[in-house]
Write a structure and sequence with these properties.
This protein has 11 helices and 12 strands. The chain is of the alpha+beta class. Strand 1 and strand 2 form a beta hairpin. It is globular. It catalyses: 2-formamido-N(1)-(5-O-phospho-beta-D-ribosyl)acetamidine + ATP = 5-amino-1-(5-phospho-beta-D-ribosyl)imidazole + ADP + phosphate + H(+). Its EC number is 6.3.3.1. It is found in: Cytoplasm.
């Protein structure tokens, strides 16, 4: 061995890591209110939880997730400032489902090589989305993994914590036969099913810079950030009676809606109640993907669902429209007669109520 081995020669550039932190600090600080103690760079993020004393019985809600293989599209396009919106959407809006207000979030980025501008762009996107959802970004970690990841490869994950008053908790225990299911439109593919999507694009031979009939390039369409429903959902729950929310992520609409229904009820969803956005039909046509597989994998235009009593529906539609979520009535909840054949009964180990998709999609 002619030369000594150093950490830098092994592929880890700590100076680049420090530079990345300097580039992202202002964006992170912009998410901090007076509850955040100590600023950026400590071993742990600190949040003053003394306001929780005002709760009668505060329940902490936590969630963790990543963006999945959508990061491969960001890497192929060399566009990294939108992935953070996807991460926050996947993490924070899972907390909102139970009615919890998000408090803090942390992120984790693993990469083959720290390129400061790229890492800072990712974190700026996370911080911007945190600011939009009222969440303090209180810490994070960037880890360089040479030899495990390629120099331009990375993955992102995050975790968040929120709080909800125990008697305001939303979920299956509130849902009743007669409730109405209201949909909120997705912004596109969001952040699920990209292993299918990327495989379809690969087999089709389409390039990411190919212009689509409705305007954007294929790459821009695939990279469209996940819509953030946080404020719309929390404002809705504060204004009208809401029984449950369901975030439509991996597994599709039926499986995720079934997770928030109690045993003994069935939600009937009308496929013809909305027009499936063109990107989903494009994936179907390019890959000859069966509709059954699409609806078990992708959101098909429904990003979040609210389950409400009938009296709440009209004001909810107005409030959600004003919030920019383009809502519509998706279906209804009814008592099951025991005939659940063909219905979906949950995912992620949850078995409660059932969902039956009826009719044909409009494209």
């Amino acid at each position: 061995m002619s030369e000594p081995i150093t950490y830098a020669s092994a592929g880890v550039d700590t100076t680049a890591g420090d530079r990345a932190v300097e580039l992202m600090k202002d964006a992170v600080r912009a998410t901090h209110g007076p509850q955040v103690i100590g600023g950026v760079g400590g071993f742990a993020g600190l949040f003053d939880a003394s306001e929780l004393r005002e709760y009668r019985r505060p329940l902490l809600a936590t969630s963790t997730d990543g963006v999945g293989t959508k990061v491969a599209i960001a890497q192929a396009l060399d566009v990294h400032d939108t992935i953070g919106h996807d991460l926050v959407g996947m993490v924070v809006d899972d907390i909102v489902v139970v009615g919890a207000r998000p408090l803090v979030m942390t992120d984790y980025i693993a990469c083959g090589h720290v390129e400061p501008d790229r890492i800072a762009a990712i974190v700026r996107g996370i911080a911007q989305a945190c600011a939009l959802t009222g969440t303090a970004l209180v810490g994070g970690e960037t880890a360089e993994h040479p030899g495990l990841l390629g120099a331009d490869e990375y993955d992102v994950a995050g975790a968040a914590t929120g709080v909800v008053e125990a008697d305001a908790l939303l979920g299956p225990h509130r849902v009743r036969a007669g409730d109405v299911v209201v949909a909120m439109a997705s912004s596109g593919l969001h952040s699920n099913g990209y292993s299918l999507v990327r495989r379809v694009v690969e087999v089709s031979g389409w390039s990411l810079d190919r212009r689509l009939a409705w305007g954007p390039t294929l790459g821009a369409e695939l990279l469209t950030p996940t819509r953030l429903y946080t404020r719309a959902c929390l404002d809705l729950a504060a204004a009208v009676e809401v029984h449950a929310f369901s975030h439509v992520t991996g597994g599709g609409l039926a499986a995720n809606l079934a997770r928030v229904l109690p045993a003994g009820v069935l939600a009937r969803v009308d496929r013809a109640s909305w027009t499936v956005p063109p990107v989903f039909d494009l994936i179907r046509e390019l890959g000859q993907v069966p509709w059954a597989d699409l609806e078990q994998t992708l959101n098909l235009g429904v990003g979040m669902v609210a389950v409400l009593p009938p009296d709440s529906v009209d004001p909810a539609l107005r409030l959600l429209a004003d919030a920019g979520t383009s809502p519509w009535i998706l279906g209804e909840v009814m008592a099951t007669d025991g005939d659940d054949e063909g219905a979906v009964q949950g995912t992620k180990g949850v078995r409660g109520g059932a969902v039956r998709l009826a009719g044909d999609y409009r494209v």
